[in-house]
Write a structure and sequence with these properties.
With 481 residues, this protein is α/β, with parallel strands linked by helices. The protein has helices at 9-20, 29-37, 52-62, 74-86, 100-111, 122-125, 128-134, 150-155, 169-176, 194-204, 231-244, 257-269, 283-294, 328-335, 361-384, 393-399, 403-412, 443-449, 454-461, 465-468, 477-480, and strands at 42-45, 66-70, 91-94, 117-120, 141-146, 184-189, 210-213, 221-228, 249-253, 276-277, 300-303, 316-321, 345-352, 390-392, 416-420, 423-426.
Amino acid sequence: MNQAQIPSWQQVRATFKHIWGYEDFRPPQGEIVQSLLAKKDSLIIMPTGGGKSICFQLPALLQTGLTLVVSPLVALMENQVQELKERKLKADLLHSQLSSFQRRQTLRALERQQLRLLYLSPETLLSPPVWERLSHPELEINGLILDEAHCLVQWGDSFRPAYRRLGAVRPALLKSKRRGTKIALAAFTATADPLAQTVISETLQLQQPTVFKLNPYRSNLNPNVRIIWTPQGRTQQLLKFIHKNQQSSGLVYARTRKDSENLAAWLAQKGYKTASYHGGLGAEERREIEASWLGGKIPFVVCTSAFGMGINKPDVRWVIHYQAPLLLSEYVQEIGRAGRDGKAAETLTLISEPTGLLNPEDKQRQKFFEEKIREQQLTAKQLIKKLPPTGELEAVTQKWNDAPIALSLLHSMGRLKWIDPFNYSIQKDSKNKIERRSHPKNQMQQYLTTKKCRWQFLLTAFGFEKEAANLRCGHCDNCRK
């Protein structure tokens, strides 16, 4: 069954037009669809708004079995599944916030092979009730898709260690399926520099992957960075920018839930119609805010990084970072929400003056996040000495709460192998251990303070040196100076 005939290109294009209404693919969408239909592994780097989801949704719908989509955020899953369901397509999702009734319904549909696409987080994928059903010999699985694959690099060694076990998923599933079964594995992201690409490819155990890379440059996006001297200066610049752009749709990014709530409440007092959006809200509340923003009832949302992934609003004219993200990949993701229709869009980031003496909050925030990660990693490193050389994840987690992070750290250092997604083996020979160097902490800082063309800096940082050579975009703040 898994070896069913690949549909003709005519059928592929006809289905594409019937479901999405487009006449033809944008490069390299067509090639990616062909690669997945041929059960080949792929690593896909395409800018935000480049139409990545269609590339894995279409092959899934053209085949008889199931495609699993591993996704980092509930909001992202809900948006994609809702769109598919509105088109009467066989897609569903599983996550921890579902009611037991909804969960039972989806698991039943999974058992009966009624789904073509199932969205779930790494943690849900590896939960016993779901894994048991996915491992059933009769359940046909065609593909495993990692959406927003940069999250594996950003979070795999800290608070989402389940990402580090994903490389063991395909071999374990294949053991339970009929001989000759093939499962395509593909990782999709808008932001992965050469190091991140290597980490993704090695962690997922991609086999001779076809790499599709489009550089993130967008000629209609105008990046700006503005230095502010005091907390009051920050709020004044925000108000000035919003007032100037209040007739158009936008997003205000804050770094924490508390910041987004406080800022939204303050802006509401100033007479602006807005809402705070973050991962701590219930599904209904999130849906309501999204619908109000998409429908133009509220011109802008004050949000954390939980907002935007998978939400398609083409006419976003501006994005302001009230506080800068810690990582360059987050920044590129978030400014990429603007100008998807190809028309000019402004992006502004507010930062403290270099010493941070008059307004130390940026430095304090960065220090807080770095300290948190350092503490976590220190605890994990101390725990490594106590872990048995081979073991079962659940058993060691019952004994030590921090075991999953300790094991993911060992894995990132090349000192641990996942025998399957639940059992590990620590490698004795440390001579061959690979020290995984994390992305330079000061990369974001360098970008914010560079005097060079901002797009040239971004292209270089993400491994597009050839395209970056001699580039002056002419429309970032540095070029316009």
